[in-house]
Design a protein that fits this description.
globular; MetI-like fold; mainly alpha
């Protein structure tokens, strides 16, 4: 009985060098987050002592307790979580629908409309804040929950990304679904969406991060502390207690945690979607 042995390919010097560079880069990016998490477990005295310590001598969770007792952190958390999830779900839906229409439907002025949308991507976001704020004032949406959600419901980059991938889907798939009796929406849901699921996962993380990390727009459009999101609440907390580094580190750690959870939950699809984007690009 013959046995087949697979020969292991030896890594070339170039591959080893690339691996070392990627490892060093990964550690360099993880170091600030690790330092923040470890600092949140230290006392103010230990944080300010010289030379600094890497690991806390006496780890404590009192910093987290003081943050939760000092400010309505859970309210800020809930505001960011609700707006982040809602903006991601609706933004993902509109991006998929619009991308599908631009990719597979023919109508008058389609190319002009699509190019106009792409041209809007070149306008700096700071420039759009003034007219957008005036629109919100005209609708009486300032200092309401709507001002934190409606402007995020449509994302031009998301539409462009989904359109580019849906263009490569063979039209035979759509025709076969229509022959089987599927309507337009069922074809979109049962045929198109499963194919672009990795790209949807990548876009989902982008949209959630954009909403979760948004600071300037909530800062100028919301005045009530009951509607503060985490970045705005954290900024106000830092202004009030800027010298209490231990509390700021604890609050920052709790702020970053949801992003890490979302990435770990969708890591497989996210990497696959980014890989597909690189191949297509």
């Amino acid at each position: 009985m013959s046995r087949t042995y697979r020969k292991k390919k030896k890594a070339t010097p170039g591959q080893i060098l690339v691996f070392i560079l990627l490892l060093v880069g990964s550690l360099a990016m993880l170091l600030p987050f690790l330092w923040m998490a470890l600092s949140s477990l230290k006392t103010q005295t230990e944080l300010l002592q010289m030379p600094p310590t890497i690991f806390p001598k006496q780890p404590t969770l009192k910093n987290y307790q003081r943050v939760l007792e000092g400010i309505p952190f859970l309210q800020y958390y809930a505001n960011s979580l609700v707006t982040g999830v809602l903006n991601t779900v609706v933004g993902l839906f509109t991006s998929c629908i619009a991308g599908y229409i631009f990719a597979k439907y023919e109508f008058r002025g389609k190319n002009v409309l699509f190019l106009t949308m792409l041209a809007c991507m070149m306008i700096p976001y700071d420039t759009l804040m003034v007219p957008l704020y005036r629109i919100m004032v005209a609708f009486h949406w300032t200092n309401t929950f709507l001002v934190l959600t409606v402007p995020y419901f449509v994302n031009i980059f998301g539409i462009f990304l989904m359109r580019q991938f849906m263009q490569d889907i063979p039209k035979d798939f759509i025709d076969a679904a229509e022959i089987d009796g599927c309507g337009q929406f069922r074809t979109f849901r049962s045929v198109i969406l499963p194919i672009v699921r990795p790209v949807m996962a990548a876009l989902c993380i982008f949209l959630f991060m954009a909403s979760w990390n948004s600071y300037i727009w909530p800062l100028i459009s919301v005045n009530s502390r009951d509607l503060f999101t985490l970045p705005v609440g954290l900024g106000a907390f830092q202004n009030d207690r800027g010298r209490q580094v231990d509390l700021i580190m604890a609050a920052s750690t709790m702020t970053v945690l949801p992003i890490c959870i979302v990435f770990l939950a969708a890591q497989k699809h996210f990497v696959q979607g980014i890989t597909m984007a690189g191949i297509k690009g």
